[in-house]
């Protein structure tokens, strides 16, 4: 997806957002929520793409420690393709349906491998999590997804309510006026953050200093 009209640029750079549709349904409720954010980003001159997780099997991370420069050592699914797109993205939106009061197991397996093998790709890039549910389990799902942001030095994008929509079908989501309003405000907030970050770069503001090396083991012989 590309922004309608001129793309917002600072220093000749076009802002772009990569979204993950964590549903097996390519145009279900989660997609409907992401598209509402996308339309708002387009109005702000920010381009976007929705990456479809799809119904194919997703293997879990096995902690093998064999990550490569391209990402995960396993290449039989879309993890590394997503990582490659993430390298060139300025911001992210991760969307998930709610299954048993939790994100789909497939989206968590996918993101575990993405962040375990290429978490540095996301540092200092803002992200928003979005949950879609018929009724409940949304806040627990948002909490799970937002943990990826917290451990990867990503600014987290909020809205005017929890980042969720409700409905059992896309047609019902379209009737969730407050939910769609929340999605639009995510879009505005994300676009604003991207423009502020780019303005900081152009003003010569350096990235924050990061300490590494200290690891505490709570089990001692």
Rg, rounded, reads 18 Å
Distance between the termini: 55 Å
This entry's quaternary arrangement is single chain
Outline the low-pLDDT stretches: 1-5
Report the major sheet.
6 strands, mixed
User: Into which percent range does the helicity of residues fall?
Assistant: 25-40%
Tally of contiguous helical segments: 6
Question: What tags apply to this protein structure?
Answer:
globular, alpha/beta, 221 residues
Describe this structure in words.
The chain is an alpha/beta fold and 221 residues long. The chain is 37% helix and 17% strand. The chain has six helices and eight strands; from the N terminus they run βββαβαββαβαβαα. The chain has helices spanning 29-43, 79-87, 105-118, 138-151, 170-173, 177-202; strands at 9-10, 13-14, 16-21, 47-52, 91-99, 102-103, 127-133, 164-166. Strands 3, 4, 5, 6, 7 and 8 form a six-stranded mixed β-sheet that branches. A hairpin with a 2-residue loop joins strand 1 and strand 2 (13-14). Helix 1 (29-43) crosses helix 6 (177-202) and helix 2 (79-87) packs across helix 3. The N and C termini lie far apart (55 Å).
Secondary structure elements and their pairing?
Layout: E1 9-10, E2 13-14, E3 16-21, H1 29-43, E4 47-52, H2 79-87, E5 91-99, E6 102-103, H3 105-118, E7 127-133, H4 138-151, E8 164-166, H5 170-173, H6 177-202
Helix pairs in contact: 1-6, 2-3
Sum this structure up briefly.
This protein has 221 residues and is an alpha/beta fold. The protein has 6 helices and 8 strands.
């Amino acid at each position: 997806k590309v922004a309608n009209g001129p793309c917002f640029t600072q220093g000749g750079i076009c802002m772009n957002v990569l979204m993950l549709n964590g549903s097996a349904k390519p145009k279900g409720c989660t997609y409907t929520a992401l598209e509402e954010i996308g339309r708002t980003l387009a109005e702000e001159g920010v381009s976007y793409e929705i990456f479809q997780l799809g119904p194919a099997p997703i293997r879990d991370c096995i902690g093998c420690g064999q990550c490569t420069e391209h990402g995960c050592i396993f290449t039989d699914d879309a993890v590394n393709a997503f990582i490659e797109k993430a390298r060139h993205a300025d911001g992210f939106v991760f969307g998930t349906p709610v299954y048993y009061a939790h994100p789909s197991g497939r989206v968590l397996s996918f993101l575990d491998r993405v962040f375990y093998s290429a978490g540095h790709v996301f540092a200092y890039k803002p992200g928003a999590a979005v949950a879609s549910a018929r009724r409940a389990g949304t806040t627990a799902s948002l909490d799970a997804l937002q943990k990826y942001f917290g451990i990867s030095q990503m600014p987290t994008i909020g809205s005017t309510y929890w980042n969720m929509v409700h409905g059992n079908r896309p047609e019902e989501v379209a009737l969730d006026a407050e939910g769609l309003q929340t999605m639009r405000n995510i879009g505005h907030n994300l676009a604003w953050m991207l423009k502020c970050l780019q303005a900081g770069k152009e003003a010569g503001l350096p990235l924050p200093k990061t300490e590494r090396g200290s690891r505490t083991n709570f089990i001692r012989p």
